[in-house]
Design a protein that fits this description.
The chain has helices spanning about 25-35, 50-60, 70, 90-100, 115-125, 140-150, 180-195, 290, 295-310, 315-320, 330-350, and strands at about 15-20, 40-45, 65, 80, 100-105, 130-135, 160-165, 200-210, 225-230, 235-240, 250-255, 260-265, 270-275, 280-285, 350-355. By secondary structure, it is an alpha/beta fold. Helix 1 (about 25-35) links the parallel strand 1 (about 15-20) and strand 2. It is globular, with a radius of gyration of 21 Å. The structure holds nicotinamide-adenine-dinucleotide. Nicotinamide-adenine-dinucleotide (NAD) binds near residues 21 and 85.
Length: about 375
């Protein structure tokens, strides 16, 4: 008996480091290590070194650092997944890009448009690929709904509605100011923009309150919000969020136009129903990593393909055009611009124009 020698890719698998292995980063790290063929988890960085080390042992990773700098300086790291808190995103994407590493960055990729513009400018100057973690686009119902709307199933949208209801027990002390717009509703802003991608958002008008924890209202907590958005093709949209539901993780979209309506999300889990004397009941997903399990894996699979294409000399922008769900710099900028307008609107009480002008700043 002897070996059969096969043609293999001499460049080997992509070696990925994950920066920040809290709730989201832990899932991404496991996807890199176990769920996406062709990716290898090379290193992880998190200031909470004890829990990072425990995760590394579980996933069989030898390299763990308390600081992202160590990982970003590691020549064995080809690409990074940034899942640290958003205030670190612009600097970490800039540093990764300067070191020639491809970047997958969780939303929102910055807390402000000026910070985001600086991070994007540095990535573009370095010429490395950048993908943003707008996973909702990869949900099966959302992907199918997108195809239908793009094929003209509803005509030019008249009314659009996107909502997020999060079942995580609300700890008001951990909610950062305006997080409902910057971290939660940014998903809705992106999905509305994506489904209506022939148009741009003109302005946003927000109302918000602390209805889950009114006792935290004096401290400025916002746990419930509605934003109306006008688009330049006439479409009127609403995005709404609650940071606490009693019944599970609930994410839905409606796109209504002259020729019909497309909906996505809101499906019970799985498709089993209980028919009894009480009537009919069905389960719900409780966690984002349950509801969007396959979507999170699919976005990293696209990232792998993007980076491999880039290594093979294909322009990342050209490659991204073949993957309609893949979100990039312009998409996260458009979504964060709506979030900033919503926050400004809350402060002045009227609709605020969405800022589409890119600013010069430093990360
Ligand atoms: N796409 C989604 O559905 C989704 C869901 C949840 C969170 N997120 C995003 O993921 C990011 C992380 O959120 P999370 O819920 O996992 O938060 P988290 O607080 O659970 O985890 C953040 C982790 O980053 C670590 N950290 C802090 N400073 C760091 C630094 N400078 N470098 C590296 N790591 C650092 C923390 O110790 C912590 O372990 C946020 O941008 C959030 O918006 C996305």
């Amino acid at each position: 008996m002897s070996y059969t020698h096969l043609e293999v890719d001499a460049r080997g698998p992509l070696r990925v480091a994950v920066l920040g292995v809290g709730w989201m980063g832990r899932f991404h790290a496991a996807s890199v290590a176990q769920r996406v063929p062709g990716l290898v988890l090379e290193a992880i960085a998190d200031p909470d070194e004890a829990s990072a080390a425990a995760l590394a042992r579980r996933l069989g990773v030898a390299k763990v650092a308390a600081d992202a700098d160590t990982v970003l300086a590691d020549p064995d790291v080809d690409a990074v997944v940034i899942a640290s808190p958003p205030r670190f995103h612009p600097a970490q994407m800039s540093q990764a890009a300067a070191a020639g590493k491809a970047v997958f960055c969780e939303k929102p990729a910055a807390l402000t448009l000026s910070g985001l513009d600086a991070g994007i400018a540095n990535v573009e100057a370095a010429g490395v690929p950048l993908q943003i973690g707008f996973n909702r686009r990869y949900g099966a119902g959302f992907a199918r709904g997108y195809r239908l709307v793009r094929e003209g199933a509803v005509g030019t949208p008249h009314l659009m509605r996107s909502l997020t209801r999060d079942p995580a027990p609300l700890d008001p002390a951990t909610i950062k100011p305006h997080a409902i717009f910057i971290e939660t509703l940014i998903h809705d802003f992106d999905i509305l923009n994506w489904f209506n991608s022939d148009a741009v958002a003109i302005d946003a008008h927000a109302v918000a309150a602390a209805l889950v924890r009114p006792d935290w209202a004096p401290a400025g907590l916002l746990d419930t919000a509605v934003v109306t958005i006008r688009y330049d093709n006439g479409a009127l949209a609403t995005a709404e969020a609650s940071l606490q539901t009693s019944y599970g993780y609930d994410v839905r979209l409606e796109v209504f136009g002259p020729d019909g309506m497309v909906t996505a999300g809101g499906a019970p889990e799985p498709d089993a129903r209980h028919y009894g004397s009480h009537g009919v009941s069905a389960g719900t997903h409780q966690l984002n990593v349950e509801l969007f399990h396959d979507a999170y894996v699919a976005e990293l699979t696209d990232f792998r393909d993007l980076v491999l294409a880039w290594r093979a000399g294909i322009d990342p922008a050209r490659f991204a055009r073949q993957r309609p769900a893949m979100a990039g710099a312009a998409d996260v900028r458009a979504a964060l611009a709506v979030a900033e307008a919503a926050i400004a609107s809350l402060q002045c009480g009227t609709a605020v124009a969405v800022d589409h002008s890119v600013r010069q700043a430093t990360a």
